[in-house]
Backbone:
């Protein structure tokens, strides 16, 4: 039939847009992050459980202060959303608290351009927080590019640990 | 009838004389380029004491690093003449040397040294250059570089850049515990002097065109800001302190302006600051990262890095208006540096899996890779356009490398303590 | 009357049926084919994942529960037997103790059961939570994958476009290069053709000369024959006048025949003579050619040798650019040694000029010169050396 391909495509597009609208803001996932991501996952679930348990308490500052990014990307990965939610809750509940978001990049490429990449990542986190209702006056951004690596070394495992944004309260 | 015969005879004569050989011209269309063999003989020491510096070693190392010369190994030198009068030219012809440098060192009347050096054309068997210079103990390395400059220029016609300096940054430590420092040293890495030390990152040193000041980025105020420091006095001024990135300072050829990258309006853009009036002019306006500017030698515009096309490429903007993309080879080109004659662009190009120093001919567009290592950064061109210094990795340590602009020779510089990065080559200083 | 009615009924019914059938058909087709286009993997993995996980957790819970109950039963058994032994020894206190012990055991058992139930409830809750979270994660992952697919498609398109652009540019470069090469080839071809043309002209000229000579010989012979013929006619006329008129016709005929024969013989002789002179001409020429050929070959090979050695020793300074040329005036001894090499037309760049002089200085002496025949050798005593690099890259 002539318009079945179009119909297929339209229906697929419809369902995709419905799912996209329903899901939270996701991003592409590149790079292997097994150990770190599982660590972040369990931490995330703990804080999630804590938050569920103590709904409106301004208890402790979230434990997890670092989130990681895929190569050349500044999109927030879904496994870190709960971490960011935790920080957002904390900042909203403690309006006198200020945080400096430090953006970083891995060593590849040139230094000043990597300052730009680190800043993009920190801005991405800041956007998430402000969308959650955190006041922009509580957030400051500094990019260190590749100047302060967490781990020395070449290879994807080192790079993955350096592509990060750190919450510095 | 007579006239006809006469004409015929004349024609015949003409034919005969033209047939008798036209001068032969042989055409040579191909050559065989390689570094020129040169013999630099250890200078004869007539001082009666030991010399604190090996002048012939300084000269031969300088000439080798330029990529144009191939100094003959000292062990293979068959004779050690001190002057051209003691030279048997056939010895050196047999050795394959095209040029010969000899010298003598005596003590000078004021307590320093008197150095005589001579340059000889071996194949033509004639003396090309000869001079007597003086210098104190501490000036001997500088005199060595001076002689290298003179010899280099006499043979190649290009002004030597061995008496220039380099600035670079060192880092010791990891994570939140790193000690940063900014150094200035001779072009061969010797005689390093610390200019600034800090617990916060220092980046992007840039020499003023008169060679007297360095601009750089320092995070000492918890945020990146651009400073200018006078090398003689150590005095410095903080020129910017905006929110966000303040980076990549680049001096205009007349020394009156600084181009830079500022992200105060949302993302890094190229600005030009008039140093005297502290007035700013914004030159780019788009959501991409625009950074790493470098002025064209005539001051009419600059090249810069932008990822407006999706990944970093190098663009040229004219101050009179208009921006044009320059690089099309590969999907990562950044940190462009224009050669002093304006004909070549040196940059970092990602090819395959590595980030390498590459050169693009701005007329033909042809790109040549100059290095084959994987994590190269920060290329900086010598003021005579013949050599490029850059940062690279040896294992996990940052070191400085040098490659001749034609790609023939590669050297790494004696490495200072820790991680060395971000070299910047000074302009001519004499 | 009935017919049109029937027709009308048929007319209405069939299209309706067809229309409905068409719509149904479309619906079915879309419904039937649509699931195929969905990524099958996600459906099956989701189903598998849930099944497996729920089974394992319930299994584990059941196993935990049963092993716990087993342990509890063992413990209570052990305790009871100990209590019985103790009671046997002291019977008075045993009854009270037994009852107390029984009460204690019962209480403990109740406690353990309660604990086991609580554990089971907690585990069930945990399992439910885990299942819920997993389902959520799977749903999110599915959504993200679909998004990623769309993103990847977009990215692929962009890459394709970029590739096409790059390809276009590469092709343009290639075309330009090909054009340059074609021009170069054409240039070379033209040069060769010119050379060929010159040679052809030379050959043609030689041929024309020979032919002209041949024509002249023929002409001379013809003229000679004609002259003789005229003489003969005169004599014949005189003889005829002397002789009788009656004999004149026959004699004339006879004489005419004799004359014709004589003319023919003369013509043949002339032709032979000219042919003979042409043959000797050709012989002389081939001698000259072979001698000249050898000399030319020797000179050619020496020139190539000179070119090769000088080129091998020509080390251009790094500032050299295409377009730089320098001409030297070179003089060699008959032994091939270099006497002088001087710049006659400079490139404007002293270092480039010097590199040319050094090239011939390094390449000399050319000992092969001594083997050249004298004619060829003289060419190379004084000549021009024109350095025109074609291999300087830009």
Residues:
């Amino acid at each position: 039939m002539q318009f079945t391909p179009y119909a297929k495509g339209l229906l697929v597009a419809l369902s995709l847009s419905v799912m996209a609208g329903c899901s939270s803001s996701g991003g592409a996932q590149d790079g292997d992050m097994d150990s770190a991501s599982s660590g972040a996952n369990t931490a995330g679930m703990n804080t999630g459980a804590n938050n569920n348990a103590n709904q409106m308490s301004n208890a402790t500052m979230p434990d997890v202060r670092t989130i990681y990014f895929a190569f050349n990307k500044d999109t927030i990965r879904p496994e870190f959303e709960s971490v960011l939610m935790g920080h957002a809750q904390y900042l909203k509940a403690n309006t006198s608290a200020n945080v400096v978001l430090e953006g970083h990049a891995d060593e590849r490429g040139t230094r000043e351009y990597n300052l730009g990449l680190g800043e993009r990542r920190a801005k991405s986190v800041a956007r998430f927080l402000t969308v959650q209702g955190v006041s922009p006056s509580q957030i400051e951004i500094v990019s260190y590019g590749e100047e302060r690596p967490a781990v020395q070394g070449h290879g994807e495992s080192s790079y993955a640990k350096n592509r990060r944004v750190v919450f510095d309260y | 009838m007579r006239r006809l015969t006469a004409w015929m005879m004349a024609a015949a004569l003409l034919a005969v004389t033209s047939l008798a050989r036209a001068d032969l011209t042989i055409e040579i269309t191909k050559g065989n380029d390689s570094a020129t063999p040169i013999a630099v003989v250890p200078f004869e020491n007539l001082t009666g004491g030991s010399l604190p510096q090996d002048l012939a070693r300084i000269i031969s190392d300088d000439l080798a690093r330029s990529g144009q010369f191939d100094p003959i190994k000292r062990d293979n030198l068959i004779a050690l003449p001190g002057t051209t009068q003691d030279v048997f030219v056939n010895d050196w012809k047999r050795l394959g040397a095209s040029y010969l440098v000899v010298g003598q060192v005596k003590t000078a009347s004021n307590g320093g040294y008197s150095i005589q050096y001579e340059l000889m054309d071996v194949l033509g068997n004639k003396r090309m250059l000869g001079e007597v210079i003086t210098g104190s103990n501490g000036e001997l390395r500088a005199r060595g570089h001076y002689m290298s400059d003179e010899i280099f220029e006499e043979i190649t016609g290009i002004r030597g850049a061995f008496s220039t300096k380099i600035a670079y940054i060192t880092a010791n430590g990891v994570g939140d515990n790193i000690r940063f420092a900014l150094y200035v040293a001779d072009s061969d890495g010797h005689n390093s002097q610390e200019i600034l030390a800090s617990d916060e990152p220092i980046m992007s040193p840039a020499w003023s065109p008169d060679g007297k000041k360095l601009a750089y980025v320092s995070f000492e105020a918890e945020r990146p800001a651009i400073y200018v420091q006078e090398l003689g006095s150590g005095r410095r001024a903080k020129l910017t302190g905006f929110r966000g990135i303040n980076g990549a300072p680049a001096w205009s050829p007349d020394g009156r302006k600084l181009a830079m990258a500022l992200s105060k309006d949302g993302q890094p853009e190229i600005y030009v600051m008039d140093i005297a009036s502290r007035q700013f002019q914004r030159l780019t306006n788009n959501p991409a990262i625009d950074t790493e500017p470098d002025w064209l030698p005539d001051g009419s515009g600059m090249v810069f890095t932008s990822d407006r096309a999706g990944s970093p490429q190098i663009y040229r903007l004219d101050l009179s208006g208009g921006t044009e993309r320059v690089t099309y080879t590969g999907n990562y080109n950044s940190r462009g540096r224009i050669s002093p004659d304006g004909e070549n662009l040196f940059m970092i190009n990602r090819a395959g899996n590595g980030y390498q120093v590459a050169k693009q001919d701005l007329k033909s567009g042809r790109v040549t890779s100059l290095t084959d290592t994987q994590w190269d950064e920060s290329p900086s061109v010598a003021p005579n356009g013949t050599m490029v210094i850059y940062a690279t990795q040896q294992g996990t340590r940052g070191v400085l490398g040098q490659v001749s602009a034609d790609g023939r020779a590669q050297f790494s510089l004696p490495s200072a303590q820790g991680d060395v990065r971000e070299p910047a080559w000074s302009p001519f200083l004499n | 009357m009935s017919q049109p009615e029937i027709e009308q009924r048929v007319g209405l019914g069939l299209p309706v049926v067809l229309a409905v059938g068409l719509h149904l058909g479309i619906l079915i087709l879309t419904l039937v084919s649509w699931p195929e286009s969905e990524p099958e993997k996600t459906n099956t993995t989701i189903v598998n994942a849930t099944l497996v996980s729920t089974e394992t957790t319930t299994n584990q819970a059941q196993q935990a529960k049963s092993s716990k109950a087993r342990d509890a039963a063992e413990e209570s058994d052990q305790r009871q037997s100990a209590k019985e032994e103790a009671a046997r020894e002291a019977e008075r206190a045993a009854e009270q103790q037994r009852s107390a012990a029984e009460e204690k055991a019962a209480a403990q058992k109740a406690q353990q059961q309660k604990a086991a139930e609580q554990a089971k409830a907690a585990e069930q809750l945990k399992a439910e939570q885990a299942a819920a979270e997993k389902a959520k994660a799977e749903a999110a992952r599915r959504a993200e994958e679909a998004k990623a697919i769309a993103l990847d498609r977009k990215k692929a398109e962009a890459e394709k476009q970029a590739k096409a652009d790059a390809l276009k540019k590469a092709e343009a470069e290639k075309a330009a290069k090909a054009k340059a090469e074609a021009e170069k080839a054409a240039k070379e071809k033209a040069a060769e053709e010119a050379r060929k043309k010159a040679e052809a002209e030379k050959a043609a000229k030689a041929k024309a000369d020979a032919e002209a000579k041949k024509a002249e010989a023929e002409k001379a012979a013809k003229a000679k024959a004609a002259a003789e013929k005229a003489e003969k006619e005169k004599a014949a006329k005189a003889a005829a006048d002397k002789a009788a008129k009656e004999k004149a016709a026959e004699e004339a005929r006879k004489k005419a025949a004799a004359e014709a024969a004589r003319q023919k013989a003369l013509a043949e002789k002339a032709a032979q003579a000219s042919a003979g002179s042409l043959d000797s001409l050709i012989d002389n020429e081939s001698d000259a050619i072979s001698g000249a050929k050898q000399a030319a070959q020797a000179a050619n090979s020496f020139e190539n040798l000179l070119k090769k050695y000088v080129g091998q020793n020509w080390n251009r300074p790094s500032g050299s650019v295409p377009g730089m040329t320098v001409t030297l005036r070179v003089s060699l001894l008959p032994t091939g040694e270099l006497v002088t090499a001087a710049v006659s037309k400079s490139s404007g760049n002293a270092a480039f000029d010097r590199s040319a002089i050094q090239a011939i200085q390094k390449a000399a002496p050319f000992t092969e010169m001594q083997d050249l025949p004298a004619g060829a050798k003289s060419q190379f005593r004084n000549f021009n050396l024109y350095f025109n690099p074609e291999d300087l890259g830009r």
In short: The first strand of chain C starts at residue 326 and ends at 332.
